[in-house]
Amino acid sequence: MRLSEFIYESSPIFLQNFFCGLEGRRIFQRRFSQNFFTIFEDIKERDKLPKDELESLQLKRMRGQLILAYENSDYYKTLFDRYMFDPYGFESFDSLRDLPILMKEQLQEDIEPFLNKKSAPMESVTVRTSGTTGAGLIFPETKECENEKWAVWWRYRTNLGINFDTWCANFGGKVIVPIKQTKPPYHRIIKPFRQVTFSMYHLGPDTVIEYVRVINEKKLEWIHGFPSTLAYMASLMLEQNLSFDHRIAWVTIGAESLLPHQKEIIRRAFGTAPKQHYGLSEPVANISECEYGSLHVDEDFAYVEFLPLEDDPNRCRIVGSSFANDALLFLRYCTNDIVTLPSKPKKCPCGRAGRIVEEIEGRRYDSIVQKDGSKIMILGHIFRDMVNIREVQVRQDKSGFVTFYIVRSKNYTQKDEELLRYEIEMRFKIDYDIEYVEKIEKTERGKLRLVVSELS
Q: How does DSSP classify residue 449?
C-alpha cells in the first residue's frame, strides 16, 4: 500500500473529507482554469454550426494535426513518407483512409515514436486508461486538450440543464471509502466539484437504504455514475420499496453502454430516464445525447470514422482522430467500441449537424457476486496502470470466487502481478485466482468480454 493511501485509510472520516477536498481542489484548478471557460464559450458557439461550416472546421483542425504529426513525430514522419501522404495538401477525409489504423497495442509497445518531440512536459498531464479489453495505457495530454475535453462534456451537461453549481451524487470507480469500512457513511464530499461521491463497492441490500437517505437528506437532484451500478441500486430500491422524497432532475451515465433494461429500471426507481454520453480518456471520439434523446457525434471535437462490420453494415467499429492533443498524436485510433447506425439518415429537432447514432454497443459488463452476497461491477479502471497486460477477462462460476485470465506482454513482471493483486484486494471482498493464458476467446462479433458471469 502506498504511504498516501495508508494515511488516508487510517484517518478519521472528517480528515478523509478534508483530503478529498484538497485533492479535488488541485484537480479542479487545473481542469477548470480560466482557459477552460474561454474554450467552453467557443465550444458552445460551435454546438449548432451549420453542416458546411462544421466540415470546414473539421478539415482545418485535422490538417493542423497531420502537419504537427509529420513535423514532430518520428512514427508519422516515416509513415507519411512510406504512404506518400501529403499532410500539407490535405483537403478530404477520404484520403485519411489511406493510412493504417492505430491500435492500442502499438502505443503500449513503444509510445515514444508517437509523441510530439516539441511538446513541453510542463504543459501536459498524465492520463491513465484501460478500456474494454482491460489493457492499460498511460499517455500525456496537453492541459489545453484536457480543458477542451471537459468543455465538450460540460456542453452536453449544460444542454440538459445542469449548471456548474449543481451538486451531484456521483457513483464512480475510485476507492474513496476504505473497503474495510463496515459502517456508514459510505460517501465522501468533494466540495470543489460539488460532489457527494458514493462508494460503489459498499452498495448492497443492507446498505442501499443509507445511500437513499443521504441523497434525500442533501436533496441531490443530479445522479451520475456507471449504468451497471445505478441499475443495481435501482433494483435494490424497487425490491425494498425505497424512493427519493424529491424530484431527481437528471441522471447521467458514462464509462459503459446503457442497456435497455438498465434504462427502464433506473427510470422506474429514480423517476427520471438516464441520458447517455460516450467519451474516452483518449480524445478521439465523443457522442452526446441531446435534450430530444438523439445520440449526436460531437464532430467539432474529433474526426470519427464508422467502419462497417462484415456481417452487418449498420453496425460499425469506432475509429477516431484527435483534433486536440498536441502531446500525443492519435490518428485513426481504434477504440474497440461498436455503434449501431440508423438504417437511414435521421434529423433531430435540436438542429445539431452531428451524425446520429442509434445505439452504442461498446463497454458492457456483467456483475460479480462477492463473499457477502453483494454485487459489484468489475470495470476496466482497476487495470488502468496495467500497461503490461495485453488482455484480461474476469470469470465467475461460484459466489465469492473469481478467476482473472491474463494475457501478458513480454514486459510483464512479478511487480505487475503484485500490483494487480493489490488492486483486487483493495476493492473487492472475493477469493480469486490468476491464470495466465496465450489468448482469450472473443465473442462471435469479435469483442472481448471483460467480465463473464456463469452464475444464474
A: P
Q: Exposed, middle or buried by CB within 10 Å (0-12, 13-18, 19+), for 113?
A: middle
| pTM of the predicted protein model | 0.82
Q: Where are any strands of DSSP class E within 34-104? A: none
Q: Is residue 99 part of a domain?
A: yes
For residue 243, being part of any structural domain is answered with no
Cα separation of 57 and 51, whole Å? 10
Q: Pick the closest to residue 163 from 221, 237, 92 (CA basis).
A: 221
Whole-number Å distance between alpha carbons of 97 and 157: 33
Q: Do 96 and 148 fall within a single domain?
A: yes
451-453 vs 389-398, strand pairing mode: parallel
Contact 331, 66 (CB under 8 A): yes
Model pLDDT for residues 289-310, shown as the tens digit of each residue:
999 999 999 999 999 999 998 8
Structural domain for 72, as ranges: 34-155+279-360
Domain membership of residue 197 (yes or no) is no
Residue whose cell numbers read 480543458:
147
- CATH code for the domain in which residue 372 is found: 3.30.300.30
Residue (of 94, 72, 106, 109) closest to 327 by Cα position = 72
Q: How far apart are CA 354 and CA 213, in angstroms?
A: 40
Q: Are 292 and 439 within one domain?
A: no
pLDDT tens for 410-445 read 788 999 999 999 888 888 889 999 999 988 886 654
- Amino acid identity, position 136: G
Looking at the structure, do residues 320 and 355 belong to the same domain, yes or no? yes
Tally of domains in the chain: 2
E-strand spans in 123-232? 124-129, 137-142, 168-172, 187-190, 195-199, 222-225
Domain boundary among 360, 381, 404: 360
* Alpha-carbon span 402 to 421, nearest angstrom: 12
